[in-house]
Design goal:
heterodimer, A: 444 residues, alpha+beta, Dna Ligase, domain 1, five-stranded mixed sheet, 14 helices, 27% strand, B: 296 residues, alpha/beta, Ubiquitin-like (UB roll), Rossmann fold, three-stranded mixed sheet, elongated
């Protein structure tokens, strides 16, 4: 655990350096595309508009000065499958973005969808020594959370303190300076498979970039596509990507649950490819041009040329009606949405005061999806597009970019995580100089 | 079966190679760009020039060519000085200055050393200030401010005219050549000329009787009047003492009496030295000396 603490802290320091230099790259490694945004930070503003305890909350405003997208290669289910292919794709995106920004970036923040994220709710309690809550007490109560067995080869990706309670008063955002006897905290921890993170790290290192942060893409697309009251009252963001569909539930502006379904738009494409016996490229084109999930009488008459390159006249002149196409697409989308519904139930989404569902991501652009989703997931469904960000090109404002935009918001306004707090004094080794130094610092 | 229409071209990888990617990042580094765009050309040019000039013979050729060019430029008629015009000096002094300057004409104005010429002309005693400048038309204009003689200093070996600061202006053969100037004498008189002038100005009421000032012991002044009368002034504040005496003279007509000297060196009281006849008469009037036949 301390190892993780150190590595996450190192990433935070890197991020601070990048903010000082003023330029940072945002890398969204997806199954269908790799997006790279380059942000320039204009200066640190001190207004703490985000709630939080630690030193990271509320940092600066930024501007997108470079944006590039490239077709992803070697990524399956949001995980890197072929390392050097992915490395090349990352290089392409970064180079194009650098060219547009005309600036060299050395630090990047990356997000990915896969790696089997699992959520854990942690709780910790701490008896206050003197009745006022200090920073050390916050650190102690976070350290007092009992960590569940997250399994072999897994690593903690996020660990947010979600809620603080002080003597039966719960729902405190920042307990420091308050008076009470017993401080309790709830923490949300997200664990992912370590090997996926290792692979991503290796690829980014091969591109001469320093990793200054890492995030789950379901989490960051929730940041960008949920509006403020949705984040406050409870809502779920469903990021339908190419290879996997991410789910994140927000409540009181904190993520309280995240999961992913290993199904996405690429599966729809492969279904079409198999069903119509066309290559994947053609299937992708047909899906984006004519796809839908709700068949009407009109669709029976709309014939789609599916073509072929076989040289056989009959095969190359094939046509299907749009109804047939919808008949291929719809079951797969229903399957995805049913899986999502199951995951939402696992996350106790039905207990939330407001049960808003926001669909975002590239695969959510199928016409009629909101109608289908409201039948499966619940009545309150809307399509989400990412927040508008200064300097973002028009081509990168669609729902497919909610992950990238959310990651830039995450870079500018990171939430306090567990490793942003100091280690409590007792946890230092007994004879360390650091401990002595801290004792002096705290007592004088 | 392969399609007959077109051969599938080998797909090119859109990704940059590792080296291309690195080169682009290097090129985007501001310091590197600056070095490449400014430092490299400057370095190449400096290197080429350095290699070319490494040879002694080439350097000499360059030096000679430059010197030749410089000479040709400086010898142009526009820069030749053909005339020296001296202003503000009497004809004798002008001649003396011209001799001292000893400038060979015609000469390029670049070769003229005006500072040295100014020093040479300034050596002359009669010259207070020299101003040299090369005017258009090849004229070297020398503006001279002459020293103004204000007193004559009599020494054992002759007469010298001094200016207000006590600097020698010229010798003088006869006192009567400059009868208008007052006379001072004594060793070190030239060092206190300013004080002498002040005393002379203060002694204006007795000017007709004044014959001159004598510096005594390099310390104080004596005023010498006609009839060999002397006024001994103190070393400190001689003007005030003189003014007191003049007031006394105006009231009591002191200096017209038979007195050989007035000693003002003590500011408590003036001391009079009577002439022998007056002294005898005084004593007799007081009955201190018996009247003898000889005295009558």
């Amino acid at each position: 655990m301390t190892d993780l603490y150190q590595s996450q802290r190192a990433m935070r320091n890197m991020r601070r350096q990048a903010l000082q230099r003023g330029v940072i790259a945002i890398l969204d490694v997806g199954t269908s595309k790799i997006a790279c945004l380059i942000l320039r930070f204009d200066g640190v503003e001190d207004t703490r508009d985000t709630e939080g305890v630690g030193p990271m909350a509320g940092q600066s405003n930024f501007r997108v000065i470079g944006a590039a997208t490239t077709r992803s290669r070697g990524v399956r289910f949001g995980e890197i499958a072929v390392m050097n292919e992915t490395e090349r794709a990352i290089r392409t995106a970064v180079q194009a973005a650098q060219k547009m920004a005309n600036v060299r970036v050395d630090h990047c923040i990356a997000c990915f969808a896969g790696a089997d994220p699992r959520s854990y709710g942690l709780a910790g309690e701490w008896d206050l020594q003197d009745s006022v809550v200090t920073e050390q007490d916050v650190a102690r109560v976070l350290a007092a959370c009992d960590v569940p067995d997250i399994g072999q080869g897994r690593e903690v990706l996020h660990a947010h303190p979600v809620n603080f309670a002080l003597d039966h008063r719960t729902g405190l955002g920042d307990p420091r300076g308050q008076i009470g006897n017993r401080l309790a905290c709830d923490m949300h921890m997200l664990s992912v498979e370590a090997s996926v993170v290792q692979n991503l790290l290796y690829c980014i290192k091969r591109c001469d970039l320093e990793l200054a942060g890492i995030a789950n893409s379901a989490y960051v697309s929730g940041i960008s596509s949920l509006v403020e009251d949705e984040q406050e009252l409870g809502s779920a963001c469903i990021d339908m990507g190419g290879g996997s569909t991410g789910i994140s539930i927000f409540m009181k502006k904190h993520m309280i649950y995240a999961d992913s379904v290993r199904l996405g738009g690429d599966h729809v494409t492969s279904d079409i490819s198999k069903g119509l016996q066309v290559p994947l490229v053609v299937a992708e084109r047909i899906k984006t041009k004519h796809g839908g999930v709700q068949a009407t009488g009109m669709d029976d008459r709309e014939m789609i040329e599916i073509g072929g390159d076989s040289g056989d006249w009959d095969k190359d002149r094939r046509q299907v009606s749009r109804t047939e196409l919808i008949g291929i697409i719809r079951p797969r989308v229903e399957e995805i949405l049913e899986d999502v519904a199951a995951r939402l139930n696992a996350g106790f989404f039905d207990q939330l005061p407001s049960q808003q569902i926001v669909l975002t991501g590239g695969a959510s652009q199928i016409p009629g999806l909101d109608g289908l989703a409201s039948r499966i997931l619940g009545q309150r469904v809307r399509m989400g597009r990412p927040l508008r960000v200064q300097g973002l090109p028009q081509a990168a404002t669609g729902p497919a970019f909610s992950g990238a935009v959310g990651l830039s918001l995450f870079a500018a306004h990171p939430q306090d995580e567990w490793w942003d707090f100091d280690i409590p004094n007792e946890r230092y080794p007994a004879r360390s100089i650091k401990r002595a130094f801290k004792w002096f610092k705290d007592n004088w | 079966m392969q399609s007959l229409g077109r051969a599938i071209p080998p797909r090119r990888d859109p990704a940059p190679s590792r080296w291309a990617y690195r080169m682009q990042r290097l090129w985007l580094t501001p310091l590197f760009r600056l070095l490449f765009r400014v430092g490299l050309p400057v370095g190449v040019v400096a290197l080429a020039v350095g290699i070319y000039l490494a040879d002694e013979g080439r350097r000499a050729v360059f030096g000679a060519a430059f010197a030749d060019l410089q000479d040709r430029f400086q010898e142009r008629p526009e820069f030749l000085v053909t005339l020296v015009s001296i202003e503000g000096a009497s004809p004798e002094l002008a001649k003396a200055v011209r001799d001292r300057l000893a400038i060979k004409l015609p000469q390029s104005s670049f070769d003229l050393d005006l500072d040295a010429a100014r020093l040479r002309a300034g050596v002359l005693d009669a010259v207070a200030e020299v101003d040299l400048r090369v005017r258009s038309g090849g004229v070297l204009q020398v503006v001279i401010t002459e020293r103004d003689p204000v007193v004559i200093w009599r020494q054992d070996d002759g007469l010298t005219m001094l200016d207000a600061k006590g600097h020698r202006v010229a010798g003088l053969a006869l006192r009567t050549d400059r009868a208008d100037l007052p006379l001072i004498a004594g060793e070190g008189a030239d060092l206190a000329t300013a004080e002498a002038l002040e005393i002379l100005a203060a002694a204006q009421p007795i000017a007709p009787r004044l014959r001159g000032l004598v510096r005594m012991g390099k310390r104080r002044w004596d005023i010498v009047l006609d009839r060999d009368q002397r006024i001994l002034l103190p070393a400190d504040a001689p003007i005030a003492a003189l003014e007191r005496l003049l007031a006394l003279d105006q009231a009591e007509d002191l200096l017209a009496r038979d007195i050989s000297a007035v000693d003002l060196r003590s500011d408590q009281r003036p001391v009079l030295r009577l002439a022998p006849f007056a002294l005898t008469e005084l004593r007799r009037a007081r009955g201190l000396v018996p009247v003898t036949e000889n005295d009558l």
